[in-house]
Amino acid sequence: MKEPKNFQNLTAEEIVRCYWRGFRLVRVLRWIGCLVCIAWLVPHILYGGSMVTAVLAFLLYLGYLYVLRLANSLRFLSLNLILNRDCDPVKFTEVSRLLKERLGSRTSGMAGLNMAWGLYWSGRFAEAEKALTNVELKGKNPQGRLMLRNLDFNCRLVRGDLDGARYVRQEAEAVIRNEKPGSVIRKSGGRLLDIMDAAFAERAGDWETFRRLHDRVSPGNTTEFQRVTAAFSLAKADLAQGEAENARARLTCVADHGGTLYVTEEARCLLAELT
Q1: Residue 204: CA atoms inside 13 Å, Cβ hemisphere, count?
Q2: Fewer C-beta neighbours within 10 Å, C or N terminus of the chain?
Q3: Residue 106 reports pLDDT greater than 70
Q4: What DSSP state is assigned to residue 102?
C-alpha cells in the first residue's frame, strides 16, 4: 500500500489505480481478519474455552478493523495533496471523478465533494455548483458538511447571491455550535466563519475588516494552496488601496506557484496590466 511521494509525476489514472490496489488490499485484509477470528473463536467457545479470552480476542479483532479503516481514511486524505500541495485542481477533479465512479454507492460522498471542489478551483463554477447538488454525505461527518457549505458559499458569491451566501454562513455556524467547545470542528469552523466574513468584507470594499480577518486566519495557512489563494485575495486588496508594488509581489507569487488554480491566470492578467 505504499503511496506515491510525488503526484505531479503521475496521471490521474495512475493515481487512481494505485489507490484502488490499496483499497482492495484493505478489503481482503478485513475478510482475512474476520475468518481468522471466526476460526479461532468458534472452537474456543464450543470446547469450553474462557469467555474472558474470547471477549479479549473479539476486542482485538475490532481494534484490527479500526486500524484498517484508519489506514484507508488516511490514504484517501493523502489525495488532497494534489490540491493542497501541488495546486492542481484539474488533476484533483479527474482523480475524484474516477474514484467516484469506482466507489459508487460505497462512497461516503467525499469523492463527489472533492470533485466539486476541484471544479470550483479550476474555474468551472457552474459545473461545481451542479456537482454539489448531487453530493450526499453519509453519517455525521461534520468536517465534510462544513466543507460542503464552504463550497456552496463560494459558488453563491461567484454568482452574486449574497443573501444565499449569508444563509449558508448561518447553516455553517449552526453546525459548529452543535460541536463540543474546544473540539477540532469548533476551531476549524471558527476559522471558516472568519474566511466567510472576510469574503463579505472584500465584496463591500471594507479593506480594514478584510485585512484584520486575514491576519487572524493567516497562521492557519499551512498548505501551498492556502498561501497562494490568500496571496491572491490580498493582492486584490492592495490594488484597491493603491499599493501596486505589494500587489505585484503577491501576484508574482500566485503566478509562479498557483499551478492550474483559476486564480493563476487571473494573476497573470493583473500583472500584465501593471506593466
Answers
A1: 13
A2: C
A3: no
A4: H
Amino acid at 124: R
Computed on alpha carbons and rounded to an integer, the radius of gyration of the chain in Å comes to 23
Which DSSP helix (H) or strand (E) runs through 157? helix 142-158
Residue 205 lies in a domain: yes
Residue 109 to residue 89: CA distance in whole angstroms: 18
Mean pLDDT of 181-188: 83
Summarised one tens digit per residue, pLDDT across range 49-100 is: 677 777 888 888 889 889 988 988 889 889 999 999 999 999 999 999 999 9
- Nearest to residue 270, comparing CAs of 246, 93, 32? 246
Cell of 216: 487572524
Dist. CA 211–CA 202, nearest whole Å: 9
For residue 230, what are the contacts with CB-CB under 8 A and spacing of at least 6?
214, 218, 221
Q: Residues 134-157: what's their mean pLDDT?
A: 88
Q: Look at the chain and report how many structural domains it folds into.
A: 2
Other beta carbons within 10 angstroms of residue 207's beta carbon come to 15
Any residues with CB less than 8 A from the CB of 150 and at least 6 apart, and which? 172, 192, 195, 196
Residue 243, domain extent: 221-275
CB atoms closer than 10 angstroms to residue 136? 10
* Predicted pLDDT of residue 1: 42
pLDDT band at 138 (very low <50, low <70, confident <90, very high): confident
Task: Note if the pTM is more than 0.85.
Answer: yes
| CA angle (195, 199, 202) in 5-degree steps | 135
Report the C-alpha gap between 66 and 39 in whole angstroms.
20
